[in-house]
Every structure is written in structure tokens, then in C-alpha cells.
Amino acid sequence: MKKRSIFQSITKDLRKGVRRLFWFFYTDIKYKYLTINFNKNKSLKEFKISILLPTRERSVKFKRMLDSLITTCKNIYRIELLILIDEDDKELKKYEEILKDTKYKNLNSKIYIINLPSHAKRNNYLAEKSSGEILFPFNDDVIFISQNWDKEIDLEFSKIKNQPYCLWINSGQKYLYLHSDFPVLNRIWYEKLGYIGSEFFNFWYLDTWICDLSLRSKKFLISKNIKLYQYSAHTIKEEVDSTHLKNIKNDIPKKDEIIWLETKNERKKDAKLLI
């Protein structure tokens, strides 16, 4: 097979980038128009939302996240919080004590104590236990910023009828038109694929895999109105902890990057299931 020149490679990448940008702007305009007409003609459906939260030795960050959840959510009664904690987690009792606080009494929360080897397997386990129409893979180092973010989820997913879809939201990243760190999925997406995260990986790339499938299938919405903030250990030195260090040791990010590059055909195949 004849190898492409550097010029040909750059040209192909530029064309791909232009097509992607065109699609993003088209999508943005399309759904702004849909929102205007939707608000005129329809009433919102209120979805049950399942938040999937694997966590380890981060009870303080967990409480910070919980406080943001209950103070920003419009209707806490339709939120289902599923928490997965490792059997050897030293802070297990602290998590349980936090959830006993009366200010969380209206939150439907469930703790699952089980050891699973990867971030994707943990999310898939929680998805299997969930009952919501909307599945929201989440992190313990993230907080909700936007008030009534659950109503915004209603607004976006009410536009979709019986199709698998992914909602991209803003967690402070500058590249919302290229990627979402915390994509939200409807149950049809999960049922079509049979999983939330690809289990090829050790820890990373759950969000990247989801976004890649949504791009390939063109099954995604973008909301600039739902804002999160992540206290990322990558950028905030004080946030570095044992959980973060565990997930970057032994070249885990590099190993997962190699797996990502080697699984392009699998992503193509799974994207077809969404079309």
C-alpha cells in the first residue's frame, strides 16, 4: 500500500476538521431553532435521572458534590444517585455517615460495595442497577454550577423521540464543540450498545469513547446552559490525592492511549448500532 505524504495527511486532517466544525455550528443553529419552536408548542417531559458515581477514598469531595447537587437541582425527588465504593475503601463508613445527614433525606441514593477492575466496569455495573430514563456518568471531584440543570436536561431530551442520543454539557472546558468531559445519555443509547463505557480500558477514555460514537453517529445535542466545575488534579495541585495517583501509576494513561488508537474499528462498529 502506498504511504501518504505528510502534505496529504495534513490536507486530509484539515478537511476532516472543517467538516467537523461545520457540523458543530449546524447542530448549534439547528437546536436553537428547535428549542424556540419546542418552547412554543410543547410541554416538557420530566425524566427520571440516574447519576452514576464510582468513588474511592474521597468522602470530603463526595460531600462537596452532594451539597451542590441538592442546592441546584429543581426536583430532587426524580434523581437517583447510585454510588459504587470498593470493598477495601478506608472511608466507607464516612460515606455512609454523610448520607445519613437529614439534609439529604429527599435524595434517593444507593450504595453498592464491590471491587471492579476498571472505571468503565464500575459505570456499567451502576447502569445495570439504574432505573432512570437518563443516565449521567459523574465524578466525585465535580460540582453542579447551574441552577435547575435537571430542567435543562428535560428540555434537551424532550426534543428526541425514540432515538439514542448523547447530550454534551459544559464542565469548564474550552473545547465544548470538540468534546464533553461529562456526556449525558438516554436509556435508549445504553440499550442499543449494552454498555456505558468500553471495557477495553484500564481507567481513562470513557468520555472520549462516548463522544467519538456520538460524532460518528451524529446522535448528540449540545447544551451551553448546564455548567459543571471539576476540581481536576491535573490542573489543581491541592486536588492530587491517592485516588488520582492510583489512576496514573504504571503508565496507565499511556496504556489507555495505545488501546484508544487500536480500537478505531470497534468504535466504527458500535457507532453503526446507534444509527
**Number of domains as seen in the coordinates:** 1
Name the average pLDDT.
89
Oligomeric state of the chains present here:
single chain
- Relative strand content: 15-25%
Helix content: 40-55%
Widest sheet: strand ordering: 3-2-1-4-7-6-8-5
Name the CATH architecture: Alpha-Beta Complex
**Computed structural class:** alpha/beta
CATH topology: Spore Coat Polysaccharide Biosynthesis Protein SpsA, Chain A
Relevant CATH superfamily: Spore Coat Polysaccharide Biosynthesis Protein SpsA, Chain A
- Could you spell the SSE succession in H and E letters? HEHEHEHEEHEEHHEHHH
**For the report, how would you describe the main beta sheet?**
8 strands, mixed
Shape descriptor: globular
State the gist of this model:
The protein has helices spanning 6-41, 59-72, 92-99, 119-129, 149-157, 187-193, 206-217, 242-248, 252-262, 264-274; strands at 49-55, 79-85, 108-113, 134-137, 142-144, 166-170, 184-186, 220-230.
Question: What's the structural blueprint in terms of helices and strands?
Answer:
Layout lengths: L5 H36 L7 E7 L3 H14 L6 E7 L6 H8 L8 E6 L5 H11 L4 E4 L4 E3 L4 H9 L8 E5 L13 E3 H7 L12 H12 L2 E11 L11 H7 L3 H11 L1 H11 L1
Helix pairs in contact: 7-10
Protein architecture, described:
- The protein has 275 residues and is an alpha/beta fold.
- It has a single domain (44-274), classed as Spore Coat Polysaccharide Biosynthesis Protein SpsA, Chain A (Alpha-Beta Complex).
- 46% of the residues lie in helices and 17% in strands.
- The protein is built from 10 helices and 8 strands.
- The protein has an 8-stranded mixed beta sheet with strand order 3-2-1-4-7-6-8-5, sandwiched between helices.
- Helix 3 (92-99) links the parallel strand 2 (79-85) and strand 3 (108-113).
- The radius of gyration is 19 Å and the shape is globular.
- The model has no long low-confidence stretch (mean pLDDT 89).
